[in-house]
Each structure stands twice: as C-alpha cells, then as structure tokens.
Amino acid sequence: MSATLARMIGAAFGDGAAVDGSRSGRPIAQGAPAQAPCLPPGTSSRRRKLWELPAQRHCSLIGTCLPVTEMRKLAARAGYDAKDLSDYSLHAVVTGYCNERREPAELIQRWLDKRYAATIQRFGLARDAAAVLFAWRKALTLGDDIAGALWAAWTHPLLDEADGGEIFGDIHMLSHQIGAGARADPGQTEHLKRENASLREQAQALRLELSLAQREHEAVVGELRCRLAAGARTERNPGQSGCRRNRPRSVARRLQRRQRHPACRKTGDPADERRIVIIYSSNNHNSIE
C-alpha cells in the first residue's frame, strides 16, 4: 500500500518525497514525508499553518475547504503534472504533502487564507477556545460557510486539542450526513423536475387565457367608446346616424363575457364606466322598441 502511494506521489510531484529511480538513481522513498511538529495551542498569537496541524485533520480539511478544480490548478502552479490522476488519487497525494512546509502546502495555505479571509477575521474576535468552538458550532448549525469556518477554527491560535477533536468529530459526521442526503437526491430531483414542468405548463396556459381576456376586454371597451362618441355626435346632429344599429347586441354579448371572465378588469375610469352603462341601457331600450 505504501509503495503504491509512493509511486502515486512520484508520478504527481516527482520531487524528493518520492523520486523516480531513473531520474535520481535512488529507489522510491516509502511512506509520506515526516510530519512537522505541531504548534502547541495558546503559546503564540499567530494562527497555525497547514503543516503545523495534526496530520489526521488534513484529509477533512483539504476535502472540505479546497475544491478539486482549485487543487488541480495549484498542483499545476507548483509544476506538477496531475492530469492522469483521478480526483481521489490527487487528493491523497496533496493531503500527504500537507505534513511539512514545501511548495504545495504553501500554495494551499495562501489560497485558503485569501479565500476565507472574511471568516478568519470573524473568528479572530474569539478570545478563548470555548469562543472558537461556539463560533464553529454556530456556522455548522446555520450552514454558513462551513469550509471557511473549519479553516478559521482549526488554525486559530487559541484552539486546544480537545476542542479541535470536537470539530473533527462534527465534520466527520457531517460528511456521513451529506453522503446519505446525496443518495436520496436523485429521486427527489426527478420528482421536482416533473413538478416544475407541470407548473410551467399551467403558468403558460394561464398567461394565454389572460392575454385573450385582456384583448377581448379592450375590444369591448373600444366599441363602447365608439358608441359613446357616436351618441354625442347624434345629439349634436340628429340627422346623422352613429354606428350600425346591430351593434348593441354584439356589445351586450361581449360585455357579458367580460363580466363573467375572472381575468378581466375595469378600465379604471369611473366616468367611462358610467357612460358605458348608460349607453348599454339605452341600446337595450332601443332594441326592445
């Protein structure tokens, strides 16, 4: 297993930690680089570096805080060819290189500090380990930038080993919960897709119905206004006729449809509405005569 991992490290990075014998004349080194000593909590005001954290935290930290796309970019910036490695294989290699201060670890440190600067600043207000743990649990409960909260908490200078272990347990269980949720997601996604398509069809049908109702409403109001104008002209010139005599019944039918349709609205002008009612009543009276 260690020989296989060493070959993976050599293929990805090809430097002193796992050197190809054809390039250096030495056999491939077995195992990961030695871990740098951890900075004791509470002995310094500066934040801990990636390579100063316990090795068992690196896997969760890299997997949670460093997206795979960025991990590949950083590997390329360090001059390593990882295009033939799977995401998991590259993750394993990069995690092994977080144990000591070298170029990959320093690139990751700078990227994480820049990406989560605002969260680091917020966690910097904590004055003891309990406050750091409280800030972490709050972020975990709210689902508020969990990756940034993990990085800010584990590198906080006041966090002790016991509380760091509590955070490790939290993030470990969260990974299980996310995995369980991912198994349920495909079925739920399909259901939501079908429901969304049905709602889109209903919305489109309602839009078409409303558009037709509005056009009919506008036609009715336009014709009634025409009748209103014709009536005014007739009052001024009794010998001239307005619109055709067979219009009132057509107008009455349209007005009835307008009143029945729930999507229709009034013109908004009370004076127009009163004149329309007067003309409609007058037309009905003339048609009876």
How would you sum up this structure, described in words?
There is one protein chain. With 289 residues, the chain is an all-alpha fold. It folds into two domains: 2-187, no CATH class; 205-288. Helices cover 67% and strands 0% of the residues. It has twelve helices and no strands. Helix 11 crosses helix 12 (270-288). The chain is elongated, with a radius of gyration of 38 Å. The N and C termini lie far apart (106 Å). The relative contact order is 0.08.
Question: What's the structural blueprint in terms of helices and strands?
Answer:
Elements: H1 2-12, H2 21-24, H3 58-65, H4 68-77, H5 87-96, H6 103-115, H7 117-123, H8 129-142, H9 146-154, H10 161-236, H11 247-260, H12 270-288
Helix pairs in contact: 1-5, 3-5, 4-5, 7-9, 8-9, 8-10, 10-11, 10-12, 11-12
